[in-house]
Write a structure and sequence with these properties.
With about 300 residues, the chain is of the alpha/beta class. It has 15 helices and 8 strands. The protein folds into 2 domains: about 120 residues, Glutathione S-transferase Yfyf (Class Pi), Chain A, domain 2, CATH 1.20.1050; about 170 residues, Rossmann fold (3-Layer(aba) Sandwich), CATH 3.40.50.11810. The longest helix has 18 residues.
């Protein structure tokens, strides 16, 4: 069967700080007949300067989309911030002729022109909409039965809901369905669609950590064994900052945080080290013995 092809847009944060997210994505993509092509010449999506210069953000986003248009392939992103920025830009430029003319005027200086001939999707969308739950379930080799999973979709795949249309912003469910494809149980909890607090880390770290703690508290009470994210910044809050939250609060959460493709990769039969699981801060601290408490994972806890 001919593979589904996408240009892989990793964004800035994942290559610099969370290589395991990309590693696991490439592993599961190959297993699911997705061909991910390196996006040569890609730059920042523009999101970090959106509040300062909207035209520059649009121009950066449009330039990245033009690279995909030139190759006739859609873009698959791993970062919701990148996904939101590129999806919104793609939609606006397709629908607003006046804005399109201004952006194409800027792009002309680098011999590019936005034509509106391609689509941008986040990994979660590609798995849910293009691969499909049925195909994922058929590929599962190691159903993760007995594993309770809390999901955190994050803000930028949910809001603003009108231009994105990825999931219900009040009651998100796509990631839960993807989790349950693996055989694990998605555990509900109050405030599921609330922010992780990560955007505040550089402005008010104490407040950011309190926001993160509030979510860890309800996940902990819900009996979650693991937390699954699809956003690098949410992952940083819950995984990299969890030890700091524990130290300040005196509460030991010890809640491992997985990128979704790591969870899916385990269910597809890959070993934890090949998915970069022990690059995750909390699991690295807990060690391979954490896996041994789950019968389905005990044989691969090496």
């Amino acid at each position: 069967m001919k593979p589904l092809r996408y240009l892989l847009f990793t964004g800035c944060t994942i290559p610099a700080r969370l290589n395991a997210y990309e590693l696991a994505t490439r592993k599961v993509a190959k297993a699911l007949n997705l061909e991910l092509i390196d996006m040569e010449g890609a730059t920042c999506c523009g999101f970090p300067i959106e509040a300062l210069n909207k035209k520059a953000t649009l121009a950066l986003a449009a330039r990245n989309i033009c690279i995909a248009e030139q190759q006739g392939i859609g873009i698959l992103t791993l970062c919701p911030g990148c996904a939101g920025t590129l999806i919104k830009a793609n939609k606006l430029l397709k629908e607003n002729v006046e804005v399109l003319e201004k952006i194409n005027e800027a792009l002309a200086s680098i011999n590019m022109e936005f034509q509106g001939k391609t689509e941008v999707k986040h990994l979660m969308q590609v798995l849910y909409e293009d691969v499909g739950l049925e195909k994922i379930e058929a590929a599962i080799e190691r159903p993760l039965e007995g594993l309770n999973v809390a999901t955190h979709t994050g803000c930028h795949l949910l809001r603003p809901s009108k231009p994105l249309g990825i999931d219900n912003p009040e009651f998100p469910s796509v990631l839960d369905k993807l989790v349950e494809c693996t055989g694990a149980k998605s555990v509900g909890y109050r405030g599921k669609n609330h922010c992780c607090g990560s955007p505040l880390l550089n402005m008010d770290r104490e407040l950011a950590l309190r926001v993160g703690k509030a979510k860890l508290d309800v996940m902990n009470r819900g009996g979650s064994h693991v937390l699954v994210t699809v956003c690098p910044f949410c992952h940083i809050m819950f995984d990299s900052c969890q030890a700091e939250i524990e130290k300040k609060s005196g509460i030991k959460y010890s809640l491992p945080v997985f990128h979704y493709p790591q969870l899916l990769g385990l269910a597809l039969g890959f070993g934890p080290r090949s998915l970069g699981l022990f690059d995750n801060r909390v699991l690295k601290r807990l060690g391979a013995s954490w896996l041994q408490q789950f019968p389905v994972l005990s044989s691969i806890a090496k």
